[in-house]
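Notes, p. 3: input format for complexes.
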Amino acid sequence: MISALYLHIPFCHAKCAYCDFDSRPLCGEALEKAASRYLEGLLARIDAFGEAGALSEVRTAYVGGGTPTVLGPGLPELVRRVRSWCAPDELTCEANPESFDESMAAALAEAGATRVSLGVQTLDPAELRAIGRIHTAEQALAAVARARAAGLSVSCDLMCGLPGQSRESWRRTLSRIVATSPDHASVYPLTLEEGAPLAHRAETDPSLEPDADLQAWCMEEARRVLGAAGYHPYEVASYALPGRECAHNIAYWTGASYLGLGRSAAGMLGAGEWDALAALLGGEPAGEGTGRVRYVQRDDVGMAFDVERLTAREAVAEDLMLGMRMTRGVGPELLSRARSVAGEKSVDSAVSTALSRGLAAWDAGGRLVPTERGWLLGNELYGLMWDLAADD
Ligand code: SF4
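Output follows (392 residues plus iron/sulfur cluster):
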């Protein structure tokens, strides 16, 4: 059952200095032409999957990018088309403050979007400039207010470890964000991705390198400040008011099948689901021994894909790894499935190592949950779970 749908919009008005996502910086007529051609293709793909019956069980949809709001009226049109095939309880559109005006907020709500995820990153003007964001702090705050006024649930993305960022400026950003009462916040440490302009500049200016200690402090401070304001950390980078968790992201972390459409969109399907849709995804059947298929669309129109076939063992190791990103960790059912697929000895040994290193603990309901240390040393904990993918 495909319960989540992701749609990718690969356009932005300008390229941020840290960005290595698939997004083409375009404006004016060039953007209009490229976006309208792209949208036409994407709508046709949605219809094709809808007609194949692949969208009827979709419960969450997410339009990401890029900057989906650069589509203008095309974005509400896209939302309406999704809603013509399914009835998701949650439908999120990513947006950047400079292209999220009142009419966009109202049109998205009217079309059936329920949630907007705003790329705020920081409210410090110098930090915004340093990372090449084209909006101001005031535009970001106004965008939050606009989304709320339109009746949309709001999430804000924030980043730490930015060039010139200090403990004080991070505290200011956090407290101003908390004052706007978004429903949800995601907090990410900046990483310098190869090929991004900031990484290139950092080669000659080491002061642009993110300071790992400062980032760790910022992540802990975010947890403290957001926690005190009633936001609970339900995932390593995600905070929500009660009942405002992102159901779409939870689908990713709990091994649900999801369909990704559009250039650079990723999808993950069970072997049977893949086989049923292989003709539309340009792929060969999953083949014997495949537990799960992951793919990434590599072109605009849906003719080229990178496909990765996972064994049942790799799939269950991945479920454990993703599950440990979440505060609620993994339950007895998944652990018992993992034991039957990867072997009792291997799973119990990985669990005991996580417990003995203080990375995980048992909660009262018998779930294996990450500890504070496991949250801070996430890669070590996820690595232990992923190692179960390899045969003994
Ligand atoms: S808005 Fe997002 S996708 Fe677009 S350039 Fe900036 S970081 Fe990249």
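The chain has 15 helices and 16 strands.
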